[in-house]
Structures are given as structure tokens and as C-alpha cells.
Amino acid sequence: MTQISIGAVGVEFGATTLFTDITVTISAGERWGVVGRNGTGKTTLFRLMTGDLAPSKGTVARQTGLVVSLLGQHRDYGEATTVWEAAAGPFAELLALEISLAEQAHALADVHDEAALTKYGRDLERFEREGGYTIAPRVDAVLQGLGFDATAARTQMLTTLSGGERGRVGLARQLVAPSDILLLDEPTNHLDLETTQWLEEYLRETERTVVLISHDRAFLAAVVDHVLHFEGGSAEAYTGGYESFIMQREERRLSLQRAFDKQQKVIAAQVDYIARNLAGQNTKQAKGRRKLLARLPRLSSPVPPDGVMSLRLEVAERGGDQVAVAEHVKIGVPERTLIDDFSGRIMRGDRLGVLGPNGSGKSTLLKTLVGEREPEGGELKVGNSIQVAYYDQNLGQVPLDKALYDVISELRPAWERRMVQGHLGRFGFSGDEAQRKAATLSGGERARVALAMLMLTRANLLVLDEPTNHLDVETIEILEEAIEAYEGTIILVSHDRAMLRALASKVWVLHDRHITEFDGSFAEWEVVSEERAHAASVRASEEVALRRVDEKKRTAHREEKSQADDPKRAIKKARERTDKAENDVAELEAEVTRLTTTLDDPGLYTRRTGVEEAHKLGSELDKLRKKLDRALATWEKETAALESLER
């Protein structure tokens, strides 16, 4: 069933044409990836879909009653004060109804009122019909998947969150909201690798239609089954996943180039004939051909595959074999230790990928390595012959108060004006754009300036902190090719798995204040860490069961306190059985915790027999989980029997 139909749409802002002639049909259940260079109109397309913007040309038709969920850039959480309230915001009316139902039930316990009873029944029916009983589990599951503690989120204040955490709360709010279509604009921003993988699974399993803008190629490859590619002032729709799109895009570009070249030859031949015969015997034929040539629809030249940026990373000096050495290093922030007692070394030619959840200390480690901060203990040294170039994910290396021309000119004072402007032109800043102040640039434009500065360093050690942030897919591909051809040493922090798979030949994993070194590629690390993902999924399901147990315990204890002081023998026996069942559950819970902790330790997978051990522990964990399920069932049965006797 068609949900949104876009026909020959164009958008103009004054004299500027953003795009023209876009035609695409989005049907229920499809998952679309929207890709293209920054500034080509991807976010504007979302505004057309929601109805917030009318097209200058063409039509946008939406299915009657269609509900579209879009995460806005400026997030407003209303009167919500806690993380849980903000995430559950779309259900504010139902949650208020739940509170009202509790108040009505309390009032009806003391007074019989037919009108009040009728209202209570009507409100209760509406609460059930609109899925009121499923709200809390749905919000809890999404918050847990996005890296929050669902229980703590009920009391955690929004004001305590960082910008990235607030972004994840906004994403959670959008995912739980009832809608027919999810419009997601760069949803993997602020997500670490594990959380991104959870989001992939969530989007693959949802029955809703998904349209997402993303520069994360691995994420696109895992999720989408259609691609809309913005290029050359329009957009082309492709059927199939992201990898299929890459092949189709290249075939289409090749076909367009051949057609363009063929037409150019025809035009050149006609122009030559007209020039030679316009004043001669064949003047009539020449004039006829001139008229035909004037009416000929001209094909546009295909967009060159190298795009708007030309990046080459070179090394001025080879440098020594030992690039950096860490000895018993301790790194922290106020009131918190991030890395404790780490020793390791980086050798010339290493391509090191640094992994870890958000907040584990990856960026702080890089800042310490490049000398922007001191370690709290130990020693972290960079070789004397090593020249370091640091790409800061916050783009702090780009001076905002200067014109782009001056930024490059100060790095190369001996260059003539044409050389400075030529260098800026390689990164998409031509003509008068060279005089723009850096403060006026978008995030993607500032990132290109940072890369233009990085290229001039000719350093033999590149320290890259999330270099794909703010960049579009085509620019990321160019960056990846440049890094691949680079002959120096690389330290890379990134959530872009496609880049890590292509570049990282060695991995450091930050986990629980320690760094585990994995002497293999990131692709190999993904394979051997599957058991960790298995352990995490088991642990998540057990957390739900354990919360249910805790609630049962509290209920049982409240019931117990309300009983008489002198219970009968049967009650005593039942309580003994209940206590035993509870102890069995506690022992199994402890064993589950021990196994999941072992499986979650990256150090397990660095041992020669680590993968085999992990498989055995995973099987043991599955068996233990079944035992725990049976123990929970027994405990619930005994608790119910005890409650029945006590009543």
C-alpha cells in the first residue's frame, strides 16, 4: 500500500533551485536510505513528507490518516523532568489517564456512585484499547537498548545529561511514539557500536515504514531495502540494499557518461558541418541543422565520482619504529577514573582502532596521547621523530574567527595566492568562498576545512577522533581511500564500522577502566566477540525476569507483614518452601551474573583458546537460563500458595 507518493517535485528558495524532478513512491513496510552530499536537500525532503513544506513544483500525496514521526533538531520535552518521562512523552495523555484511573479506583472503594463507576469503566476500556498496559515495557525496552538503565531512568533528571545523551533520549522518544512512518535523520549520531547494532535489529524487526538519512554505510547495509540518492540537483530511486545501490549507481554513472560522450561527438560534428557550409553551397542544409541543434535536448554531464573533495595524505619523514609507549598509565576526569594501569605500545605502520562504549574514555585517551592533557599516573610518551596530527571530533582545530584563506595561508606562508585558493578548491571552496569566516560554515563544511588543514601537516602519525562525523557518504569514501593510501601510523576512534573494517588492523578495547589489546583486525574482532553480544542479550532478558522477581518479593513481604503474628503450621511449611525457592533463584542469579561478566570481558577473546571457551560458556549460560526460568516458576507458584493460605 502506497503511503507517500512524490511526483516530479522541485524546491526553490528565491532564485536558488535546491533540487528538481524527484519522483519516488514509498510503500508500507519499506525501509529507505536517503544518501547524498551535504546540502543537496535530504532534510528538506523530510519536511515535504511531513507537510511542513510545500513543493515549488510537483505534488506530494500522503495516505489519509497517515501518522509520521520525525525527530526535530530542537528537542522539546515539554514538562518532562526525568529521562523516563521524556522518552514516554508521546504517551503523556495515556499516562495521565493511568493516574486518573488509580484515583478513581481509590474513590470507588469507599463510595458507590453509578456515574463515577460508568466513567471508570469507560476510561479503563480506553486505556486498554490504546495499549496503556504496554507503555512501560515498551519505553523500558527502548531505553535499555539505547544504553540507559530503565529503572534509574525513572529518577534520572534530564538536566544531568550530556548533549549526546539528550540526543539518545530524543531518539528513544521517537522510537516509542505510535506512528506509521519513522523519519530518522542521522540516528546513529551519539551511539556507540553496541547501541548501533541494537538499533539495526530494532529497525529490521519493526513493522513500520522507515526512511532514514545516514552516512553510516554499515548501518545502511544492515537496514535498508531501498535507496534514494541525491546527486546533480535531483534524486534517483534504487531498489535493493545499500551494497546493491553502490553497484547500480556505478553502472548508471557509466551509462550516463557514455550517452553524454556520444552526444558531445554528435554535437561537435554538427557544429563543424555548420561552420564549413553556412556560407557555401550547402547553406540551406547548414541552417536547417543549426535549427535542429538548437532544439536538441542536452544531456547533463554525470557528476564526477571524486565529488567536491580531493584529499591526499603524505608523510614528510618516516619516523622511528616505536611510535608511542604507555607505562602504567592512569587517565581520569574529576571524580572518575577512565583508564587504570595501562601499559602498551604503538609501532610504526600500526592501524589501530580504539573501541569502547560512550563515556569510556576514548577521546580523553587521544587528548592525553597528543599532549592536550596530562595522565594522572604513569607515563605516556611519543617518539622524538614522531610528528602528530590530531583530528578533533569537535573540530576545535578550525579557528572560527578567521577567513578560510587566512587559515590555509598561515599554515603555508610561502604559498602564493593562487596556491592557497587552489588548495581550498580541492575541498570545495572556490572563488569568493575562500573569504568566508569559519564561524559561518556548516558542520560538514568545517569538517572539510579540518581535512584541508590535516593534509598540510604531512605528519607520520594521524590521530583521528570520529573523522566521519558531519561528512556525507561520498566524502567518507574519499577520506577512507586517502587513509588507506597513507604510509604513516594511524590511531582511529570511530563508530563507522565500514571504515574500521577497511582500515583497522589492530584493536584496543576500553572496558571497565582497562584496555584490552586484540592483535587482529576489527573484522576479526567482530567475529570473535559474537559471544559477548550473546551474553548481553541473555543478560537483558534476565534483567526483565529479575525485575519481576524483585516486584514479587516486595509484594510478598508487604503481604507477610499484614498477617497475624501466630501463623498456622501449614503457613509455616509454605513459607519454608517459598524461602527455599527464593534461595534457589538467588543462587542461580549469582551464577548467571558470574558467567555474563566472564563473557563480557574482552580479555577472554585475546587468549588462544578464548573463542572455544566463549562457546562453552555460552552453552552453559543457555542451560543455566532454563534452570533459572524453572526456579522462577517454582518460586512464583510457592509464593502464590503462601499468599492463598495467609488470606
The strand order across the widest sheet is 5-6-7-3-8-9
Largest sheet: 6 strands, mixed
CATH topology of the largest domain: Rossmann fold
CATH class identity of the largest domain: Alpha Beta
Please give the alpha-carbon distance between the first and last residues.
55 Å
Report the helical percentage.
Answer: 40-55%
CATH structural architecture of the largest domain: 3-Layer(aba) Sandwich
Write a brief structural summary.
With about 650 residues, the chain is of the alpha/beta class. About 50% of the residues lie in helices and about 20% in strands. The protein is built from 20 helices and 18 strands.
Description:
This protein has a six-stranded mixed sheet, with helices on both faces. Strands 14-15-16-12-17-18 form a six-stranded mixed sheet, sandwiched between helices. A three-stranded antiparallel sheet has the order 2-1-4, with no helix packed on it. Helix 5 runs antiparallel to helix 6 and helix 19 packs antiparallel against helix 20 (610-646). The two termini are 55 Å apart. Helices cover 48% and strands 19% of the residues. The longest helix is centred in the last third of the chain and has 37 residues, at 610-646. It has 20 helices and 18 strands. By secondary structure, the protein is of the alpha/beta class. The chain has four domains: 76-162, no CATH class; 246-295; 322-521, Rossmann fold, CATH 3.40.50.300; 530-646.
